[in-house]
Amino acid sequence: SDIEKGPYPHYMLKEIDEQPVVIRKVISKYQDAAGELVIDSEIRACMKKADRIYIIACGTSYHAGLAGKQLIERIADIPVETHIASEFLYNRPILSPNPFFIFISQSGETADIRGVLVDIKQMGHSSLTITNVPGSTLSREATYTLLTHAGPEIAVASTKAYTAQIAVLAILAFDSARAKGIQIDVNPAHELSIAANAMEIMINHKEVMEEIVWQYLNDSHNCFFIGRGVDYYACLEGALKLKEISYIQAEGFPGGELKHGTIALIEEGTPVIALLTQAQVRANIRSNVQEVKARGAHVCMISIEGIAEKEDHVILPAVHEWLTPLVSVIPFQLIAYYAALYRGCDIDKPRNLAKSVTVE
Ligand code: G6P
Fold first, then answer.
1. C-beta 58 within 6 A of ligand 1
2. Cα Rg for the chain, rounded, in angstroms?
3. Where is the SIS domain (predicted)?
4. Residue 158: CB within 6 Å of ligand 1?
């Protein structure tokens, strides 16, 4: 059944492996009879009418929300702000005249998000919950729901729910673009399938990430992840995964910001994982890598076909530049998994954490 580990030692590893199948399932769930990816017409109308989208989430879902901001802005040309739910509630930004709210929550039960939902409902705004759990509180209380169809996620550290959330956000962005008459010169279902295949290739090469953990994280107590733009967002998730399950202190940083402070922490042997999937920032990230290397950092470079150099440690299969967050997170999830495994950590139930947090 869906919720048995089968031959897997941990739910987390099983859930990492399920991701390509989940993405293919998301594609099929949102396809109409003609094979076109479509979103419910009422949600489409809200997206079209909105002058600004407010994405509200926590933890890993917040990182999916950051990826969603990039997708909706780049594909559908609608301004998006992504906020941490607990911050939004007490430090509410000045809202645009026609806001539309998107809540992202694997469980659909997170209290911090519910606080925002209650608040914006009182103001008369409509909202959409993107969740993995049909009938959950946030699904019932928001105006609309889109399901992520990832199946039950048991490991506390979220993996397949995150990539499913990003896939649904991509479908929403493509649908909104079409509704706004924006010409998209790619076939969304096809590009998402290419991403699912690329995820599968990474999953089939776990030994590469296992080796990286031996080489870079064997007895380190900290680790930095650097990237720019959407890769920076992926780095935040990479750092969170590592912190959550291996307890290694990890931070994700924008490459350009290192020199304004954080580079002070780089010393001989400090592990730095650099991510480069966007051609636009190619030269900048390569020069950031030189800067940290010159100060002794032990750099693991993750890049993507097309802009890779042969000495890079991990090369992701080519996917559309909009969809790289689906693929770049796979090595991060696996690095966290193996780091936790070698440290003997309780991977599926890390200390101090709960799968669903129903207190504010
Ligand atoms: C908890 C979990 C995280 C999760 C966050 C948001 O803190 O430990 O893994 O990302 O809640 O959960 P949600 O169900 O709202 O996505």
1. yes
2. 20
3. 43-182, 212-350
4. yes
**Pair of tokens at residue 233:** 């967002």
- DSSP, res 317: P
Tell me the residue type at 189: A
Active site residue 160: no
ipTM score for this prediction:
0.96
**CA atoms 88, 89, 93, 96: torsion sign:** positive
Residue 60 CB–ligand 1 contact under 6 Å: yes
**pLDDT at position 141 over 70:** yes
Cβ atoms of 235 and 285 within 8 Å: the answer is no
- Residues 56, 112: Cα–Cα separation, whole Å: 9
Q: Which residue out of 60, 133, 168 has the highest number of ligand 1 atoms within 8 Å of its CB and is therefore the one to mutate?
A: 60
Q: State the DSSP code for 31.
A: B
Indicate the pTM of the whole model: 0.97
Cα 131 to chain centroid, rounded:
14
